[in-house]
Amino acid sequence: MKKTFLALTLLVSLAVSAQSDKYTQMMQKNISLLDSAKSIDELQSLAGTFDRIGDAEKTKWLPYYYAALAQTWVGWNPATKDKDANSAKINAYLAKAEAIEKNAELYAVENMSATQQMLVDPQSRWMTYGKTAGEALQKGLQADPNNPRLYYLQGMSLFGTPPQFGGGKDKAKPLFEKSVSLYKAAHPEPLAPTWGQKQAEDMLAQCN
Fold first, then answer.
1. Rounded to two decimals, what is the model's pTM?
2. What is the crossing angle of helices 131-143 and 104-118, to 10°?
3. What is the 3-state composition of the chain as percent helix, strand, coil, each rounded to the nearest 5?
């Protein structure tokens, strides 16, 4: 009886390990594809793939995060005209991820989603979507004050704000500096987000 129990335990352990390896391999493959994707069709396809991985796993937030991130890159593409509809897709993926775990990485994407909607008409939308974007950054920094992507996004917000309204290069530069410093010191775990370092370095160069 004891041998049977041990054999069953071993079989379950091997099955769980094989499932974990399959998940990791699928995620690594699609994250690599996301890093090189350029077209809207590629990005939307990857968003759907990550969403399906999340639905299959049920307890992991990262697939939904990457689905939202892929959809976010779609939103930054000038060819995407309906930013509101695109942000609705981003937010749907975020809702799935946040039902599992709320963290700084998700708040970073929430910031970008709201920013895209705000930029449709900054003058009329600043008080709504601009506020949502700012609150997402603050929540993210409370969750993880050492997240480099949050400082990059905060710097981008100030960089695009006229000096007379408290923004400009001088205000953005320290945030890009902090972001780059945190990127260089980071040791991300496998599958963890790593995007943003080159963008932060490029923006810092523009501030010099």
1. 0.90
2. 170
3. 80, 0, 20
